[in-house]
Amino acid sequence: MRRRAYFVLATTILWLAALGLVVRHAVDRLAVPAWGNTAGEARSSLVDADTAVGQIFEAPYPGLYRVEIWLEGGTAMGTVTLREEAGSEPGPVLQASSFGPDDLEEGMPYALSFEPLRTSGGREYILSIESSAAGEDGAFTAAYGPNTVLEGATATLNGNPIKGNLRFQTYYTLTNWEKLELLLARMAEGRPYFLGTTGFYAGLALAYTLLLAIFLWQIAGLVTGDRRGD
Amino acid sequence: MIRPVHPVKDPFRAAIITRSSWQAFVGLALAGVVFLGLLALLGHRGYDDPYITFRYAQNLLAGRGFVYNAGQRILSTTAPLYAFVLAGLGSIWEDLPAVANILGLASLMLGAVFLGALTWQQAGRASGLMAALLLSLSPDLLSTLGSESCMVIMLILGGFLAYSRSRHMLAAALLALAVLVRPDAVLAFVAVGICHLVRRESIPWRAVWLWVGIVGVWYAALWLYFGSPLPVTLQAKQQQGRMDISEPFALGLVNLVRNRLRQPIYWLAGLLGLAGLGRVVTHRRVWMPLLVWTALYVVAYSLLGVSRYFWYFAPLAPAFAVLVAEGAEGLLTLAAAKLPDRWVQGGTGLLVVALMAPLVQSTVSAGWNTDPRPEVYEQVGRWLKTQTEPESTVGALEIGIIGYYAERTMVDFAGLLQPDISQQLTKTGTYQDSTAWAIQHYTPDYVVLYATGFSQIRDSEWFQSRYGLVQRFNDARGLHMELFVQGGH
After folding, report:
1. Across B184-201, average pLDDT
2. Cα(B379)–Cα(B298) distance, integer angstroms
3. Three-class SS of residue A52?
4. Which of A124, B141, B229, B411 could bond to B395 as cystine, CB 3.0-4.6 Å?
5. Which residue is closest to B44 within chain A, CA to CA?
6. Is the CB of residue B361 less than 8 Å from the CB of residue A26?
């Protein structure tokens, strides 16, 4: 009797471990899409020593690791910086990169890549583009969509918000736990009472696991029972 | 007469019934948990086509009649009864898309229960339970949530179950209801008829006349109301199927199988499915109506020449689940003949989990990846509802979601509403050709176009002279739509 119980327990743990691997493999394959504004046929103001353009955005996910911006023209050197918005005061520079005309390819974005910011979800950032160009000579422009509307985002001119958005994309990498948290949060979003809690769905997953284990034992019992002609 | 069971005097029979009740309880509880989980994970999902049927229900509720565009009696839905069911439920809860998803999931779970019950009173019950488990997570069915697919499959499986228990009148009623939901379900009745004739059993004429009566009255009513019992969408889909840029159903099915088999995670299911086919054909008669229906369905859709749409593959899911389950049971039965019971029992669970792997992967992926189109289309529709006159006309290529939220007279550039537009879909043509013709012929007040693509129309002199850009709709995932108004410069 005891041996039977140990066998059932060990086998059930093996099955659930296999199921866990299946779920982990499924979650591993998930990725969040790039987020930003890809519409922008217009050009921003010329970026020179007196004029800086930028883009404020609220990162929708944790794990921000890359920002792309579409720049064109210019012969002077430029700088792209990423700061976290901290109210009226400029936040610390998180990333900065200098570029020259050789770094810009027509139609292709200029990318700023860095170690993933694990706490980026829900935080506001500002991407600033500056140049050392003196006046029009050597100045470059950024692709700009004056009529685009993006939640939590706006273009800036010399630090002041203006209508529309620059053409930009942000990329995120999530850990498996973050993906599961995000999935549970989406399942609970907008639902009333206890149905709006992630704990309910975690409990539902546990209930499914237990019922599935019993169901699998029933199937296993039917297979060997049928063989014996029960 | 059923002999009552006395647990003390007849413990063996009591144990079997108790065990069966426990198995049924666990199965139903599992279906309930899966229903709640999938509802939370996929309840917000939707795609464009079902919203055409939602609008019929919406117009019924609003007292505008069973029409898409008010005052135009054209049957542009393949699921007329489904529209009535939604209208009935919509009188309780007006969020029709949510109601449709709940109805779809409930139908899927009930269909899985029916599938499991098909072998309940027979040896080889394990395959029925495995098939039910696999069907409950079928990506081909879950991707159709919102549409009538899950409901019609549930009714067909219910009909097969009733037929297997010799409840012919109930089977006829369920199979007739399936035809009212979707006309191609007539093939399920034909499949049952073929199996019945092959068995050389006496024909249950009362059941046959019941089916004929229900279906006949319904389609006669549609004929009287619309002038034809067949939806105009059939012709449009056939025209689309003839286009060089379209993939016909048969080729689409071959490519679907090919693409799945390229993924190692599907190899086990593929092998077991083939083994299961042999097992079913040789000695599992209970599944024959299902297999015959599936075969008739594939032949019929191939001959119809319709364009490949993912929801056309949904009816193949039950047969696939059954074949894989039968193959699995066959393998386990072979193993049981050579190995100790404990090994076989342990192996059973691992085998089922392995078969569930691609389904879990697809389900999680479906809950994670959302199509940006429904959200953007809804924005367009709501903008039109609040910013335009009620009698305005709107032209778009995908009119389902936009039309549902806009509640304006729609012109469909793919010809699902106006048959003469579908005639413009030629073999070498494109949707830009039918769009251009529709705009020039119907001159809608508003035109919705994708910001990328359709440049041939947007940049043309004739379009720019008549229409001006009035609003852009953007999505952070890269989908951009543009709304033009006639005379807007």
Report:
1. 95
2. 38
3. coil
4. B411
5. A187
6. yes
CB B137 within 8 A of CB B359: yes
- The residue written with tokens 């470059």 in the block is A140
Average the pLDDT over B190-200 and give the result: 95
Cα separation of B38 and A183, whole Å? Answer: 12
Residue among B266, B252, B399 nearest B311 (CA): B252
How far apart are alpha carbons B402 and B392 in whole angstroms?
13
Cα–Cα separations (whole angstroms), residue B254 to A146, B260, B380:
46, 10, 36
Interface of B with A in 88-147 (CB under 8 A): 123-126, 129-130, 133
Mean pLDDT along residues B263-284: 91
pLDDT tens column, A96-105: 998 888 888 8
| Dist. CA A165–CA B400, nearest whole Å | 30
Residue B77 has pLDDT above 70, yes or no: yes
pLDDT digits (tens, 9 = 90+) for B252-263: 999 999 999 998
State the amino acid at position A5 in one-letter form.
A
Rounded to whole angstroms, the Cα distance separating A194 from B302 reads: 48
Task: Determine which of B28, B136, B342, B458 to mutate to test the interface with A (most A C-beta atoms within 10 Å).
Answer: B342
Contacts of B306 (CB under 8 A, 6+ apart): B234, B237, B238, B240, B241, B248, B249, B312
Residue B31's contacts (CB-CB under 8 Å, 6 or more residues apart) are B109, B110, B112, B113, B136
Q: Residue A219 is inside which H or E element, if any?
A: helix A198-228
Answer yes or no: are the C-beta atoms of B372 and B480 closer than 8 Å: no
Question: Which is more confidently placed, A191 or B392?
Answer: B392
Query: What was the pLDDT predicted at B255?
Result: 93
**Cα separation, B457 vs B469, whole angstroms:** 13
As a whole number of angstroms, the distance between CA B421 and CA B343 comes to: 63
Contacts of residue B439, defined as CB under 8 A and 6 or more positions apart, other chains included, come to: B395, B413, B447, B457, B463
With H, G, I as helix, E, B as strand and everything else as coil, classify residue B184. Answer: helix
Interface subset of B 9-38, CB within 8 angstroms of A:
23, 26-27, 29-30, 33-34, 36-37
B80-90 residues labelled b (16+ CB within 10 A) or e (exposed): bbbbbbbbebb
Per-residue tokens: B251: 């080729």
Percent of chain A with pLDDT over 70: 96
Instruction: Take residue B470 and report the two structure tokens written for it.
Output: 């009035």
Average pLDDT over residues B8-15: 52
Distance CA B97, CA B68 (A): 16
Tokens linked to B378:
């809804």
pLDDT digits (tens, 9 = 90+) for B448-481: 999 887 888 988 999 999 999 999 898 888 888 9
User: Does residue A76 carry a pLDDT above 60?
Assistant: yes
List residues bridging with A172 in a β-sheet: A64
Tell if the CB–CB gap between A215 and B30 is shorter than 8 Å. Answer: yes
Contact status, residue B349 vs residue A220, Cβ threshold 8 Å: yes
Contact call for residues A206 and A217 (beta carbons, < 8 A): no
